[in-house]
Specification:
This protein has 778 residues and is of the alpha+beta class. Helix content is 59%, strand content 15%. Helix 8 packs antiparallel against helix 20.
Length: 778
């Protein structure tokens, strides 16, 4: 018997060593691969970090019978190719041009900080037509006479302002083969554009010039008008040397005018790039200055370093040696996340950078779950070896880690599916961070912890591991053992009061929706001297913009928001602000069209509804229906309080706030899942104790994890709120509020509601126990 026991013990030890060796090899492979990717593949930065212009175009159908004018998927695809040629000719480094759905085109132009120029070049339909001139359109009294037959002729002013009657187009942009800007050094004519016609266009060009040549020199009908986008850009006379009826052979003409080099090259670009198959409209436009992107990176990096350092010190102070090893695993988490972003070609945006930092706190959560479970196992088993307690801790915490991370992945997936722009980047970064945190905690941290716990020096001094003591939070709870769930309805009443107070802020103060949801234009300036918002608002009212919203931004910054601001209006606003603040730089310019605003607002509501529904479905499948219902009611409670808090504070409700809201939903469910997982475990072991008692026991057992995880996340979020720019500061503030409210709701709201919705007569086997509202046996 003793020999068999020794053999079994040796087999278990060998199996454990093989398992540790396999995990160690896997961890080394992941770290080595991540390091290789990080050193060779840079992460692609979003425009909000490196500066530039992002434009979303939407194709529109024209009111014609031409099938090509229908803005379907095929027309949008052809439009992408035409725009690609124009962008390449602009010389923009690393541009991005992709189709989004059947009608949207996303254009990213790094380094381009003049949105007017970019939008003009991309959005012009470049409809080039050539017309025979029928004569002047002016009457004796100087008025412009309408065309005799609008179907066969049109009236347009030439470059000198004289209205001309033009015949229907003889040539269009489809007859153009190419165009090139040239400088006439010998003739002294300056810059001009040479246009080459196709084979069909050559014949048509010869015919139109042959008819014009039959009129005497100086006669308006000897002119040929070249029209671009309903504007005569050149109307030269056919040279006197061209005989009547012969025309100009060769199919080449020159467009002359008072062009400079930039205008000539832009005109040649539009002509040679071809006409857009359908008109396009700018529905969203974002311009970020390079200095703003650099400042955002610096601020976020500083917050990440300080927040991570504080979190690491806290974890080391609480869990000692294992906390130190968990910190090393967190560094590996950062490397894995960065490498995953680079390998997938994902774009790192400003909210994504915040998601990267936030995921550090979530990576801490998995380690805290394991270490707290190991502490329980160490105390419950009569002080076994630290290594066996750790093994039991990893095994016991696995279910809660998986469930809590899946709920966060659901929120991240909804952000990617329904959000736009930088918020989608946050969803991607958050999802990558969650997966990387699981690898960090379940593989790397486990290898380091089990190896250290198996050393003889550590076995002789188990307290150095940090799991041989229960911790001050658990000690106080064990000494007092409060019955928190004695009167669950009181906690529900307190939660209801909080929700009502928050909801009253929505009714009293209203919601300040950002331009993503309302449409409009927002411009942020950095001024040389501080400008009082009231003074700027008065100056803009005097300049003809009475409905602008002016707010301070940073120490010397100012934001101006209005529903309708054209590029000309924006230039006037910039001049007005410059007159007040001295040297003024435009650091951000965002334009959201009404249709885009309606769509984003609709998508936000869909994402929020799906988030609540998906969490309910998942929890109902993993647990019982009343657990899922209680968690979703608690989530709705969190959503109302967070929105109400921002209403009372006058903070904007925008796309970044939506990202924070969905993250809070994931975090709140995370807390509830950990609690419900423990309740389910206790129910499986104890079929006689009333549900209120078991729920109270689960709260006391999981509260140390809730406190320690919350502290780790709070350090990082506080650093972001204090050190990051205004956008990330509001984001971090929303998450801090959500962290506090989510902790309250999971412990008191969801748990209390579970007791109220759960069975009062326990159907778990054994003797039936009837419980009253207070949770005491009846």
């Amino acid at each position: 018997m003793k020999r068999r026991d020794k053999r079994n013990k040796r087999n278990r030890r060998n199996k454990r060593h093989r398992s540790l060796r396999a995990r160690a090899l896997l961890a080394l492979a992941v770290i080595a691969g991540s390091l290789a990717i990080a050193l060779t593949t840079p992460v692609r930065l979003g425009l909000d970090l490196r500066g530039g212009t992002q434009i979303t175009l939407e194709t529109r159908s024209t009111l014609t019978t031409d099938a090509d004018a229908d803005a379907d998927a095929a027309a949008t695809a052809r439009t992408v190719e035409v725009l690609r040629g124009r962008i390449d000719a602009l010389g923009v480094a690393e541009p991005t041009l992709v189709r989004s759905g059947d009608h949207r085109i996303l254009v990213e132009l790094p380094g381009v900080h003049d949105p007017k120029k970019a939008a003009d070049v991309l959005g012009r339909t470049a409809q080039l037509t050539v017309h025979a001139v029928l004569g002047p359109a002016g009457t004796a009294d100087g008025a412009t006479s309408p065309p005799a037959d609008p179907a066969k002729e049109r009236v347009l002013p030439d470059d000198s302002g004289q209205p001309l009657r033009l015949r229907a187009a003889d040539l269009t942009g489809r007859d153009v083969e190419g165009a090139e800007a040239r400088f006439d050094q010998q003739g002294g004519a300056g810059w001009h554009v040479t246009v080459d016609f196709s084979k069909t266009g050559q014949d048509r060009w010869r015919q139109v010039t042959a008819r014009a040549a039959c009129h005497p020199a100086g006669d308006p009908q000897r002119r040929v008008a070249i029209v671009l986008d309903n504007k005569i850009i050149s109307s030269p006379q056919v040279d006197p040397s061209v005989p009547c009826g012969t025309g100009i052979p060769g199919g080449t003409t020159q467009i002359t005018g008072s062009f400079d080099d930039t205008e000539a090259r832009e005109l040649a670009l539009l002509i040679s790039g071809g006409a857009l198959p359908v008109p396009v409209e700018t529905v969203e436009q974002r311009t970020i200055g390079a200095t703003l992107g650099d400042a955002a990176i610096e601020a976020a990096a500083r917050a990440a370093v300080i927040g991570t350092a504080l979190t690491a010190l806290f974890i080391i102070a609480v869990y000692r040696l294992l906390g130190l090893l968990a910190t090393a695993a967190l560094a590996c988490y950062g490397l894995i996340s960065y490498a995953a972003l680079a390998a997938l070609g994902a774009t790192l945006t400003l909210p994504g950078l915040a998601g990267f930092v936030l995921a550090i706190g979530m990576a801490v959560d998995a380690n805290v779950l394991v270490f707290e479970r190991a502490r329980e196992e160490y105390a419950a088993r009569g002080r076994p070896s630290p290594r066996s307690a750790l093994t039991a801790g990893f095994r016991g915490a696995l279910s809660a880690i998986a469930d809590s991370n899946i709920t966060t992945l659901i929120a991240a997936g909804l952000m990617f599916a329904f959000a736009s722009g930088p918020v989608r980047g946050f969803g991607i970064t958050l999802a990558i961070g969650v997966l990387a945190s699981m690898v960090s905690a379940l593989v790397i941290s486990r290898v380091l912890a089990e190896y250290a716990a198996g050393r003889p020096a550590v076995r002789r001094r188990p307290r150095v591991t940090g799991i041989a003591s229960t911790g001050w939070v658990r000690d106080r709870l064990l000494r007092r053992e409060p019955f928190l769930m004695r009167r669950p309805r009181r906690w529900l009443a307190a939660s209801a009061v909080l929700a009502v107070v928050a909801a009253s802020g929505i009714l009293v103060r209203g919601l300040d929706f950002g331009i993503e949801f309302t449409g409009g234009r927002l411009i942020e300036y950095a001024t040389n001297t501080p400008v009082d918002p009231d003074r700027a608002r008065t100056a803009l009212t005097d300049a003809g913009f009475p409905r602008t919203v002016v707010q301070s931004s940073g120490e010397t910054g100012l934001t101006v928001r209005a529903e309708n601001l054209t590029n000309a209006d924006a230039a006037t606003v910039t001049e007005t602000i410059g007159a007040l603040g001295g040297e003024t730089k435009k650091v951000r310019d965002e334009l959201i069209g009404p249709s885009m605003g309606d769509e984003l607002r609709r998508n936000a509501l869909i994402a929020l509804s799906l988030a609540l529904g998906a969490q309910l479905l998942y929890l109902a499948v993993r647990f019982r229906w009343f657990f899922g219902t209680a968690a979703v009611v608690a989530l709705a409670h969190d959503v109302v309080i967070l929105i109400g808090a921002f209403a009372w504070l006058g903070k904007p409700i925008d796309g970044v706030f939506l990202a924070a809201l969905l993250t809070v939903i994931g975090y709140s469910v995370n807390d509830s899942v950990v609690l419900f997982d423990r309740v389910r475990e206790l129910l499986g072991r104890d079929r006689a104790t009333p549900l209120p008692r078991l729920t109270n026991q689960a709260i006391l057992q999981t509260l140390p994890r809730t406190v320690n995880t919350g502290m780790g996340a709070a350090f990082i979020l506080t650093a972001l709120a204090v050190l990051a720019d205004d956008t990330l500061a509001d984001f971090a503030l929303a998450l801090l509020i959500g962290l506090a409210v989510g902790t309250w709701s999971s412990v008191f709201t969801a748990a209390s509601l579970t007791i109220e919705l759960g069975p009062h007569r326990k159907p778990f086997g054994g003797a039936a126990v009837t419980t009253g509202p207070s949770g005491r046996p009846g």
